[in-house]
Design a protein that fits this description.
The protein has 8 helices and no strands. The chain is mainly alpha-helical. α5 packs antiparallel against α8 and α6 runs antiparallel to α7.
Length: about 270
């Protein structure tokens, strides 16, 4: 093709017809420009198609990650609510029972294992999306904003967990000061509850292990009224945090996650 155009240019130049040569040159330039524009358009189209395929790919991965997050949050929420209710029972028990009649076994059942599972967020896909700048090819700005909020919320809940863990560790120290844990059936009760932590109907007070522990009842290490009040206050502070965690924050982030999944489905 190039030799063909070269011959035409040479013929026009040899014929000494500058006007025709000029028209031809302009036409050739226009053809070259058109060719470049077409090539750019094809390249842009291919790039856009490739990016849309990546959007579909990342959308699927992101949906899986956030769905797993929802499942994980609900497990932690279940445990937090269970502990919240257990502390309610602890408050009722201690307010309705004379100090002399407080049971070492009953207090153990009402205060053990009050910490919920740590959050394990699935952030890999979102991190990869940010580094690849694929987010700009998602059409829905609301989705982008919700993802930013969601990620920020996950880090906030991590901080909350560390706060709650610190309070739970303080509670364990109080438990060790007040309760005599040297009952062989206590560890068996812990194992039983860990094995059935998703069972909402499990009540250790109704188990054979509880009855055996009561038959081998031990005396509290401390029965000082002020120490017992401090002991209870430690759990009340934990309950106040769990009220926010389980009934507000975890519900909110689950709602946000479900909204994100809906927006991803609309995106594709």
């Amino acid at each position: 093709m190039i030799p063909f155009f070269r011959k035409i240019r040479k013929k026009l130049a040899d014929d000494n017809k500058p006007l025709k040569y000029l028209k031809y040159a302009i036409g050739e330039i226009i053809l070259v420009v058109i060719g470049i524009l077409i090539a750019l358009q094809v390249n842009n189209w291919n790039t856009y198609r490739n990016k849309k395929e990546q959007v579909v790919h990342y959308s699927k991965l992101l949906t899986e990650d956030i769905s797993n997050d929802i499942k994980m949050i609900k497990e932690s929420q279940f445990q937090a609510i269970k502990s919240f209710k257990r502390i309610d029972s602890l408050k009722s028990y201690m307010s309705s029972t004379n100090m002399e009649n407080l049971s070492n076994t009953d207090l153990f059942v009402l205060t053990h294992d009050i910490m919920y599972k740590p959050f394990v967020w699935n952030r890999a896909t979102l991190d990869e999306m940010k580094s690849s700048e694929i987010m700009q090819y998602f059409k829905n700005d609301s989705l982008k904003n919700k993802l930013i909020k969601y990620e920020s919320f996950t880090y906030h809940l991590d901080e909350d967990f560390n706060h709650d863990l610190s309070n739970a560790q303080k509670a364990e120290e109080k438990i060790a000061e007040i309760l005599n844990l040297n009952n062989t059936y206590f560890s068996d009760m812990l194992v039983l509850e860990q094995e059935r932590f998703n069972d909402p109907y499990l009540n250790l007070f109704e188990t054979e292990l509880y009855q055996k522990a009561k038959q081998n009842e031990l005396q509290l290490i401390i029965k000082n009224a002020n120490d017992l009040k401090k002991f209870l206050n430690t759990f009340i502070l934990i309950q106040d945090s769990y009220r926010i965690r389980a009934f507000l924050e975890m519900n909110e982030i689950i709602y946000d996650a479900e909204q994100i999944i809906q927006l991803i489905e609309k995106e594709n």
